[in-house]
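Weekend entry, working from home. Most of the wet-lab plans are on hold until the incubator is repaired, so I used the time to fold the two sequences that have been sitting in the queue since the last round of cloning. Logging both here for the record. First:
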Amino acid sequence: MENNIYAISYKLRRELQRKILSITGIVLLFFLIISLIMTFIIFPVANKSDSMSPDIPAGSYEFVTPLLKTPARGDVIFMQNYDGARVSPIKRLLRTMALFVTFRKWQPFEETPVLGTRPVLRRVVAVPGDTIYIDRYVVFIKPRGEKHFYTEYEVTNSRYIPKIIVPPANWDSDFGAKASIQQITLGEDEYFVLGDDRLSAADSRVWGAVKQGQFIGKALVLYFPFNKFKFL
């Protein structure tokens, strides 16, 4: 005689099938919700360089939201510096769908990044309409409509501490990220971004002004290491 109760009871088999389908549906729904959140609302980013130290050290993790792509002065943005033509809107849509179904692990139709760089965290120090110059790593900004220049700390509500180390006497200040740049005025869709490590970070001193379309999202919070938790 058959000992498997599910083999002899149609009702129990149907109940078991419904339970399996329910559990499978709940698991799929859970992953769908997580994927939606990580694609369109918030996702984690690992910062692997010292370019944003001391506020954002290497080895830290941040939450970034793609919902906020119009930054103010002082905001930390997650961006990619692209080189050459951008992809078409259709390919961007397909890329978004691929990011959604793969939990941001696969990104087709990726634009060619400058110097092969990966997306990076950088601080916005000047926004469209600002006039800016840098003198020995100190940033001076004249906002649109203003008559006078101010230091970057006077025109932002953000609190951050750039890493400015006096270089050796024989340091070539024109090598890499320049210590000083001439006065420039940003256009309607131009932002000036800097790494907090002003001595060595690659940023707008090397790339020039960047476009809003290069911003992937705004960094909201540093959540790991836990003892360095802070809102950005």
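Second, folded right after the first finished:
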Amino acid sequence: MTGNKQAVIHYSGGTDSTCVVCLKANEFDKIHLISYKRFGIFKTENIETNVNKLNQMFGKDKFIRKIIDINKIYKLVVYDDYFYNLKKFGFFNLAVCGLCKMAMHTRTIIYCLENNINTVFDGANKFAGNQTATDQIKEYIDVISEIYKQFNISYSAPVYDMAAPQHITWERKLGIDKSDNGDTDIT
């Protein structure tokens, strides 16, 4: 492994982003676990439960943990030219999940440029939201990937095509948890 190889992972603390961490942890010297907060996103501190589990699994020196406020960027993305967009797109202008995620990606690009990081992953998964999550459809992922490329940053969603395991945690599916009882869970 080359020295100081780093990546950013959009980290929600959920099953998909935690699985990405488990898949990528040994490929990088440092992983920046980035979570975002804004008005309307609550309880980001609850994510720390799974961060602590990851620290136990891979060592606390593996991760740099950040919770970043995106209120300003979110308001710009959602409300800039709001009335024009409302007239042009109607109620589709109110699909804020994709717009919120766009604010997160915008802030991630800034973070990567500030910290000289050129690899980003997230837990986008086509099965999220019964395959209707606007921020996790293939076309959206493709557009986001192209935006990152403009800044010489590689972006991918390694668990995009993975269906959630049935009756088994990601830890067990990946072979990290070898316990017989199956009680260990990262969710």
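Plan for Monday: verify the second prediction. Residues 13 and 48 are 8 Å apart (CA to CA).
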